[in-house]
Amino acid sequence: MSEGDVFHEKQRLELCAIHALNNVLQERVFTKDTADDICKRLAPQCVVNPHRSMLGTGNYDVNVIMAALQSRGLAAVWWDKRRPVQYLCVEKVHGFILNVPSRVSLGIVSLPLRRRHWLAVRQVNGPYYNLDSKLKNPACIGGEAELRAFLGEQLSQDVSEMLLVVQREIEEDGTWLNPDDPDRRILDSGCSRRAK
Questions:
Q1: What DSSP element (H or E) covers 32?
Q2: CB 3 within 8 A of CB 120
């Protein structure tokens, strides 16, 4: 499969959350209008909606991503980055949405500012791809070992976060977590998850 066969929306305005959603789903499902509708449902009484940019250019928060995925029968599971990525059961995960620091640029000039940016990672016909909307083309990561290395590197950044995109049943039964993880053994024993 060539990178040209992989669905990849490119960055427009501050719509990286929409691009990440569509890229992880591998089809254009969400638009600025649908994301704005979700924002209105999340905060119907607010004049200034806390889930998006005041300028109306996007910059949607995690609540919009979670609601959008729920509308498709999926769930977003927050990955505790203190946990090694080796505990991740990748075959149960539909895709990954990461929130990472990103440089701000005006044209070809990079400014000394950093903002938050949503990007998607997904397996497409074998290999995993970095589907960051700021990339010119999808970037092939490789197999599971390369995926784990990539995710570990992304999560090593101080302010990065990762959501696992999974089916609702997978979220509910916790099988996105490898059975070798000590926290998973606690869940399986019927005990509540211990506080860290």
A1: helix 32-42
A2: no
**CA distance readout (Å), 86 to 38, 119, 148, 178:** 34, 21, 7, 8
Place of tokens 């498709």: 72
Triad 128, 3, 151: Cα angle to 5°: 25
Active-site positions read 16, 117
Q: Give tens-digit pLDDT for 26-54.
A: 999 988 888 777 767 866 676 666 556 66
Q: Using CA atoms, how far apart are residues 93 and 174, in angstroms rounded to an integer?
A: 11
Q: Is the pTM of this model over 0.85?
A: no
At 143 the pLDDT is 95
First to last CA, the chain: 43
The helix/strand/coil state of 160 is coil
Quick check: 133 and 23 in contact, CB under 8 A? yes
